[in-house]
Amino acid sequence: MHYMHRENMAALTVVEMEELENIFALLLLGSFVGFPAPPTFLAVELLPFMEKELQMLNKRAEDCTDMLAEMCGTLGID
Amino acid sequence: MKILFFTGKGGVGKSTMSAAAAWQLSQKGRVLIISLDPAHNLGDVFNLTLNDSKKRFSRTLDLKEINLQKLAKEYLQREINVLTDTYKYLQTLNLDNYFSVLKYSPGIEEYALLTSIEETIHNETGYDYIVFDTPPTGLTLRFLALPRVTITWIDRLIQIRQKILEKRYTIQKIRGGTEEEKKAREITLEYDERDDDVLNRLQKLRANYESLTTILEGRDCAIALVFNPDILSLRESERLIEGLKDLHLPLRLLINNKVTTDTMSMANDVERRLQAFSNSTPIMRVTLSPHVRNGTDGAHLYNIDEDIASELLKQLQ
User: Fold this and answer.
1) 10 Å Cβ neighbour count for B153?
2) pLDDT for A1
3) Does the beta-carbon distance from A49 to B198 stay under 8 Å?
4) pTM of this prediction exceeds 0.90
5) Do A51 and B107 touch (CB under 8 A)?
6) What is the pLDDT of residue B193?
7) CB of A4 within 8 Å of any CB in chain B?
8) What CATH number matches the domain at B2-142+219-316, 3.60.15.10, 3.40.50.20, 3.40.50.300, 3.40.1080.10?
9) What residues in B contact A13, CB-CB < 8 Å?
10) Is A21 in Cβ contact with B177 (below 8 Å)?
11) Are B222 and B3 in contact (CB under 8 A)?
12) Per-residue pLDDT tens over the stretch B53-95
């Protein structure tokens, strides 16, 4: 199968994974945006390994003003 | 090894009672007594100046006061080191010292306290008894609740994390491709549970807390509640008993401290109510020592007539 095809097939799962990563980061570091947070030290304890999740959190925050575009992107509508 | 906690409202005589118990136990075995209270007065009871290294009082009794602030600082320093290590590139921009703001994170003190208890239990294996003089009710309940609360959180986080790894595995399988193609992708995702740092750390933490909870709820741990014959002490003790029940922690002895002939009827009343409230946990009575009342210089405040140690040991059988 062609490389692009495979990427296409994986796309939806990638979106799902990114959402989960976002949720994970949000649960752990939610105190930054006013969510009830787990014991602070858990966040501190895991912070060193959370680079990717933090980037995801950031990206979500940036995109949240344009949800329509985000959805179209997810569903592959050009 | 037996572990004993002395809890109660501020000023009821936790330090004196724990010191007395430690002194009596040291006639039977090796004892380490540790004060976790930020407002230390264990040293006053033994007429010594204590710090966070152990001090020998007698052949079988060692004393120590925990410095909570120093402990919190050390813990955070360790974490900050890992952080600055991971984000090394920030050093070139001189931004790494911004992580030091973590010092002021709330909840760190309880965690540091719990860590120190855990370390003590694991490292000080040469003792027959470890006695903890705890801070007042609020903080004590908070740090005793910490392992359970944390395990709940960790379990949820582990679940999500495993799901993420599952997805990553699927993605990797679909993408497949040759080694060159894999290399061309900018980020490689860890999908194996053993490779994921976050999951590993979570699981390690979980195992830690699980073992601590097992020790705290176990047969070798006892919590003694100290109270005075007055209404405020009764109310707070009720709350503490309730809290300990919720946490499944073994309350094994109630100590009615500072009883005098004037307060006898109140003492009876408070004892009756607490006994009913706590499923008839045994109660013992300690009379107000004339040394404490008159402030005799150089008096051995830890040397009281009542035998707390035997009573506690009876409950630990």
Assistant:
1) 19
2) 59
3) yes
4) no
5) no
6) 78
7) no
8) 3.40.50.300
9) 167, 170-171, 174
10) no
11) yes
12) 899 999 999 999 988 778 877 877 777 777 777 666 666 555 5
ipTM: 0.79
Distance from CA of B5 to the nearest CA of A (A): 23
- Segment B174-197 shows an average pLDDT of 70
**Cross-strand partners of B132:** B5, B34
Half-sphere exposure of B265 (CA within 13 A, CB side): 1
Residue A66 C-alpha, separation from nearest chain B C-alpha, in angstroms? 25
In this structure, chain A runs to a length of: 78
Ranges of residues in chain A with a pLDDT under 70 are: 1, 32-34, 36-39, 78
What residue numbers bound the domain in which A25 lies? 3-75
Decide if B267 contacts B256 (C-beta within 8 A): yes
Amino acid at B284: M
At residue B285, φ and ψ (nearest 5 deg) are: -115, 135
Q: Under an 8 A CB cutoff, do A38 and B153 touch?
A: yes
Neighbours of B247 (CB within 10 A): 19
Query: Tell me, what's the pLDDT at B237?
Result: 93
